[in-house]
Amino acid sequence: MTPQSIKTVEFEKPNLAGAQNAAGASCVAHAWAKVPPVLSPDERQSLKARIRRLLKERNAVLVAHYYVDADLQDLAEETGGCVSDSLEMARFGRDHEARTLVVAGVRFMGETAKILSPEKTVLMPDLDATCSLDLGCPADEFAAFCDAHPDRTVVVYANTSAAVKARADWMVTSSIGLKIVEHLHAQGKKILWAPDKHLGSYIQKQTGADMLLWQGSCLVHDEFKGIELDLLRREFPNAKILVHPESPENVVAQADVVGSTSQLIEAAQKLDATEFIVATDNGILHKMRMAAPGKHFIEAPTAGNSATCKSCAHCPWMAMNALTNLAEVLETGRNEIHVDPVIGRQAVTCINRMLDFAAAQKRNVRPSADLANEQALFQGIGPA
Ligand code: 13P
Ligand code: SF4
């Protein structure tokens, strides 16, 4: 397969300037405006104590993403919840016995939890916490795209609405997308991929699969700059470069490891290097520093000649999750995620396919002692 066989499509998304949320405000500005103020150490301590108590009283568990506030990540871990990438968040929420899941992340993560566990109550600190990939893939336009290509297997990234997932054959996350597309390609399937164009193109190049790509992107990762990263590498020649695959091609091309948030943290821990340049949301640095104490982490550049920093390597929607609104939803039960049951029943199929595939992969993985060498550990993950 030649690179020319990657077809781009007519949808140039996201048009964030024009995107409006329910309240009618421009969504990115609206998100930054809703980020709660920084708290004093005393306020943080007292809110954390209140949240610990409320989680117990409500039989609730906190499921957090690595990009949210460090206090929320720590609370999730110390109270028996989890902090992880989006695949593990879905799995953890589904398997946990708690009747209430509090998802600290963005809306698609809350919706996925609800679709997998319709009988549970799923709360989120702020229901306006969305994602540029989700916003850039409206369900009606996506349905028209699918209708126009009925011969293709529809694979969607987790960062989409429940209605988009309802139309898909497979859902994937960044940790397993490559393996799933490899599997589908081996079966001779042609793929319709949405919405992230960078992740789609990375997977296409790695697998050689015939993929028709929706043209969405992540507001945060789209801002990493290849030219400036190249300059930074020269300043730190011994640094390993860790890149999330939502980043542009000229950034991914310089990576030592390309992977999901969990895979990047694992790489920081296990690779024999003391310096790392990290191209993903800077919320991840909290966990990276804990997982690899003594190592030095440098943020990949979002600035430079061509910069238009809308996020400066931090997701405005992830930043909306804070101790204040977390305590509030636990206290009041407000901000519950609802998914139309009909859509939920359609969407669960593509999510379960991914989870079943991931479980089968896990069973086939050799014991961790065998994974000592870096080559084996990061097989399937790597530069484009
Ligand atoms: P992960 O699944 O790698 O955690 O990615 C989720 C995400 O939104 C990255 O921007
Ligand atoms: Fe979406 Fe990007 Fe934010 Fe992840 S970091 S939730 S992909 S906007």
UniProtKB/TrEMBL annotation:
An annotated GO BP: 'de novo' NAD+ biosynthetic process from L-aspartate
Keyword Coiled coil applies: no
Record EC number: 2.5.1.72
Keyword tags: 4Fe-4S, Cytoplasm, Iron, Iron-sulfur, Metal-binding, Pyridine nucleotide biosynthesis, Transferase
InterPro entries linked: NadA, NadA_sf, Quinolinate_synth_A_type1
Cofactor binding summary note: Binds 1 [4Fe-4S] cluster per subunit.
Binding locations of iminosuccinate: H65, S86, Y157, A158, N159, S174, H244, P245, E246, T261
Membrane-spanning segments: none
Signal peptide bounds: none
PROSITE patterns listed in its UniProt record: PROKAR_LIPOPROTEIN
Catalytic activity reported: iminosuccinate + dihydroxyacetone phosphate = quinolinate + phosphate + 2 H2O + H(+)
Cofactor(s), by name: [4Fe-4S] cluster
GO CC term (a single one): cytosol
Record flagged with keyword Transmembrane: no
Compartment annotation: Cytoplasm
Principal cellular location given in the protein's record: cytoplasm
Residues involved in [4Fe-4S] cluster binding: C131, C218, C315
GO function term, MF aspect, one: metal ion binding
Function: Catalyzes the condensation of iminoaspartate with dihydroxyacetone phosphate to form quinolinate.
Protein name, UniProt field: Quinolinate synthase
Organism of derivation: Cupriavidus taiwanensis (strain DSM 17343 / BCRC 17206 / CCUG 44338 / CIP 107171 / LMG 19424 / R1) (Ralstonia taiwanensis (strain LMG 19424))
Lineage: Bacteria, Pseudomonadati, Pseudomonadota, Betaproteobacteria, Burkholderiales
Gene name tied to this protein: nadA
